[in-house]
Amino acid sequence: MSRIKAGDLRQMVTLIRPDTTEGEHRRRATEWVDVATVPAAKADVSGREFYAAHAVHAEDVVTFTIRWREGIDTTWRIRHGETVYGVLEVNHLGYMRDYMRLKCRAVTGGGV
Q: Is 86 inside any structural domain?
C-alpha cells in the first residue's frame, strides 16, 4: 500500500493501551483500556517481511494501517473481531503524520 486512500480503511479495529496500577500489598496489576475504535486496512505480512521479523507463525502476523495517532507504541494491543494482536513495530511512514503502519502478532492466552 504505497498510496493510502480513505476507502482502503475498511476494517474497524479497537486500540487498547495498558494501564498499570498498584493494588494491595504493592502488587502491580495491568488492565487493558480501550482508547478508540478506528478504521484500518489489514494485510498479511509477506514472506520476506515474515522471515526478516523472525516470526514464528506467518498467519499470526499482520499489518494494520491507520490514520496517524499520537502515543501508540509496542506496549499497545489491537482488537479486530475476536482476535487481539500485540503491536510488534510502529512505522510512522516517513513521519508525515497522516498514516501509520502497525505490525502485529496475535496474542495467545492472556488476551485483554
A: yes
Q: How many domains does the chain have?
A: 1
Q: Average pLDDT in the 46-57 region?
A: 50
How many whole angstroms from its chain centre is CA 22?
A: 26
Q: What's the burial of 83, exposed, middle or buried (CB within 10 Å: 0-12/13-18/19+)? A: middle
Per-residue pLDDT tens over the stretch 1-28: 456 776 789 899 999 999 988 877 778 8
Spell out the alpha helix ranges (H) of 1-112: 47-52
Single pTM value for the model: 0.78
Residue 111 lies in a domain: no
- Containing structural domain, residue 57: 6-20+28-106
Our CA dihedral for 10, 11, 12, 13, rounded to 10 degrees, sits at -140
* CA distances in angstroms from 109 to 10, 46, 61, 83, 84, listed in the order given: 27, 25, 16, 11, 10
Q: Are 91 and 103 in contact (CB under 8 A)?
A: yes
Question: Which CATH number is 85's domain given?
Answer: 2.40.10.270
